[in-house]
Amino acid sequence: DAGAAGDGEVPAHVVLYPANHYTVGQEEHKERVLREIAAECASTVRSLLASGLVVEAERLQLRTESDLADIAREGYCSGMENYSRHLTGRRPGEAPPTLLDYMPDDWLFIADESHITVPQLGAMHAGDHSRKLKLVEGGFRLPSALDNRPLTGEEVWERVPQAVLVSATPGAEMALLCGPSPRVTELVVRPTGIPDPHVAVVDVAPLGGYEDHLLAQIEARVARRERTLVTCITKASAEALSDFLSGHGVSSIALHSGVKPLERLRLLAQLRSGELDVLVGCNLLREGLDLPEVSLVC
């Protein structure tokens, strides 16, 4: 231990793991891998020559022979993962080993924004296959390189015993995964702790007009140290209503597109702190989502 004082104990042996998942150590294993890669190379070169692809055949043979020499000498070559099918002894087309193979039998898969993440599980394989197929056709890689790949969507779900798919906009693919009788649960999340508001439609004509009714509602909120947002159709009407409220002793100000961004933040902070009781504007409904002090939006 370099950080400990004094002389440490000298270990009998030290294991240094390779920086790559794919290496060849034992001679017996190495001989099998070299033999299988060389056989695939010879077969593929013959196929390319038969198709008149001389340049591709020569490119593939030179590349593979160089890799075989590196593997025989060092047990490793650049791009070793492209020979993973031979290294692991898998059959052509067989799914590669992944972290999912090490999960317990009853593990739970949770996908947030699943309308995006679920389709991506299949798209990863399609994109990888399309890219590597070009390399194989150009003689840059052996066909077995196609088996160094992500899982297909079907292979993923074969390894998932149970799943929770979270989405605000579930799509058709999620419906197919869930089967003919999906168990759908509505999840209502309120980060500020505010539940869905009570919506009321008031006929203000018998009450003498909306200004007097609005003023009474605001004064009730002020008495409870709560805040109010008032939305109007135009900037001019927002400023006029704010002046009306201010003239009746309510701490109010108009907030609209003419207010600079930093000033907007300052006004919202003043509303939350209690310096202002009311904000009047043209589009304030979205502001109320993050203002737990607001109890009335009208």
Task: Considering the chains and any ligands shown, give keywords for the structure.
298 residues; alpha/beta; four-stranded parallel β-sheet; two-stranded parallel sheet; 9 helices; elongated
Report what the structure shows.
- By secondary structure, the chain is an alpha/beta fold.
- Helix content is 43%, strand content 8%.
- The chain contains 9 helices and 6 strands.
- β4, α9 and β5 form a beta-alpha-beta unit.
- The chain is elongated, with a radius of gyration of 34 Å.
- The mean pLDDT is 84.
What's the total count of β strands? Answer: 6
State the helical fraction: 40-55%
Report mean pLDDT, rounded to a whole number.
84
Poorly predicted segments: none
Strand line-up in the sheet with most strands: 4-5-3-6
Give the biggest beta sheet. Answer: 4 strands, parallel
* Secondary structure category: alpha/beta
> Which overall shape is indicated by the principal axes computed on the Cα atoms?
elongated
Radius of gyration: 34 Å
Element pattern in H and E: HHHEHHEHHEHEHEE
Measured between the Cα atoms of the first and last residue, the distance is: 68 Å
Treating each run of at least 4 consecutive H or I residues as one helix, how many helices?
9
Strand content: 5-15%
What's the arrangement of secondary structure elements?
Elements: H1 27-50, H2 54-74, H3 84-88, E1 109-111, H4 114-137, H5 153-158, E2 163-165, H6 172-178, H7 210-223, E3 227-231, H8 235-247, E4 252-255, H9 261-273, E5 278-281, E6 294-297
Parallel strand pairs: 1-2, 3-5, 3-6, 4-5
